[in-house]
Specification:
CATH topology of the largest domain: Spore Coat Polysaccharide Biosynthesis Protein SpsA, Chain A
Distance between the termini: 50 Å
Oligomer: single chain
Strand content: 5-15%
Radius of gyration: 20 Å
Strand order of the largest sheet: 3-2-1-4-8-6-9-7
Number of domains: 2
CATH architecture of the largest domain: Alpha-Beta Complex
CATH superfamily of the largest domain: Spore Coat Polysaccharide Biosynthesis Protein SpsA, Chain A
Number of strands: 10
């Protein structure tokens, strides 16, 4: 950063092996209508595809851009946390390195945040607006907000949002190095702990579909990692639940969050495996991992629950296709 003025918004972009996508992403941020009020922090997570060299060559002299690198590969969650320590703006926006945003993206959320005195603004999911909802301030009780996760109506992926730096710093210990769902876990925490959470209509954020290592290679060999990560999300949420009195008092919200994480893991991780391999092979891998943590009967119960969710999602998927 070569300007002395303090930016209104710090845009943090974690980068790991995104050389083919990161330039359009950064260019879309620098083309914002409020570009003179932002700083862009590009945090490289020890890329091996030349991403860092590309960033330095393309933006090394740009007055609005700072290019940093982790000491070691740490995952997207910790990369966001490390970059946050360098941010100077009071408002923070995270953007994934393979996505792009329209010119009014930041200004729209910034103005909504100022007008409502919110410490978090979210674009919401498409279904939220298809149900006829308009921009709104969510309930002040964080546990009650979590009930919206029952219908997957709120973003928990750390993009399509603007957050105050003070809220993120207050939740600093919930940034994790988990391989999967590190963003969803932190998103749930923020949804619960924000003092004023506002959802605005529509989206100016464009997710670019790219090949993901989560669904590449031998998926069957990845099943143990999928199971371990899902259990870790549950354990971390249990710890958060114990630390949050308002949440402890709302059993319905707790149940909704566990169901949300389970459905998320099935949809993103396990369903692609079941689509490629016979059920008995997948179940063998799942059971083998569960037995490291639970008794035989508990492992069987959890596995049956996971299978049921997979089957229900498969039925819903078929119904959705039939409706089209």
């Amino acid at each position: 950063m070569r300007e002395e003025s303090v930016p209104e918004v710090s845009v943090i972009i974690p980068v790991y092996n995104k050389a083919d996508y990161v330039v359009p992403c950064v260019d879309s941020v620098l083309a914002q209508t409020m570009a003179d009020q932002i700083e862009v922090i590009l945090m490289d997570d020890c890329s091996t595809d030349g991403s860092l060299e590309l960033l330095r060559k393309t933006y090394g002299k740009h007055p609005k851009v700072r290019i940093l690198q982790n000491e070691k590969n740490s995952g997207a969650g910790m990369t966001r946390k490390f970059a946050l320590a360098h941010a100077r703006g009071e408002k923070i926006a995270f953007i994934d390195a393979d996505d792009t945003v329209e010119p009014e993206y930041l200004h729209r959320m910034y103005e909504a945040m100022k007008a409502t005195q919110a410490d978090m603004v979210d674009e919401g999911r498409p279904d939220f607006w298809r149900k006829g909802n308009k921009g709104m301030v969510l309930p002040s009780n964080g546990a009650e907000r979590l009930l919206l996760l029952r219908y997957f109506l709120i973003n928990t992926n750390m993009v399509q949002q603007m957050t105050t730096r003070s809220l993120l710093e207050r939740c600093s210990k919930y940034f994790t190095g988990m391989r999967f769902f590190e963003d969803a876990f932190l998103g749930v925490v923020l949804l619960c702990l924000a003092e004023r959470y506002v959802v605005i209509p529509g989206t100016l954020y464009h997710v670019v579909s790219t090949p993901d290592s989560v669904t590449r290679g031998d998926l069957l060999d990845k099943v143990p990692d999928y199971v371990e990560n899902t259990l870790e999300v549950f354990r971390r949420f249990l710890d958060f639940q114990k630390e949050t009195p308002s949440l402890q008092a709302n059993g319905e919200a707790i149940s909704v969050v566990y169901s949300y994480f389970l459905n998320l893991s099935v949809d993103v991780l396990f369903k692609p495996v079941f689509q490629q391999y016979p059920p008995w092979e997948v179940n063998g891998k799942i059971h083998e991992t569960l037995r490291k943590h639970f008794s035989e009967s508990e492992a069987v119960y959890i596995q049956l629950l996971l299978n049921k969710v997979c089957m229900e999602q498969g039925k819903q998927y078929g119904k959705d296709l039939g409706d089209k």
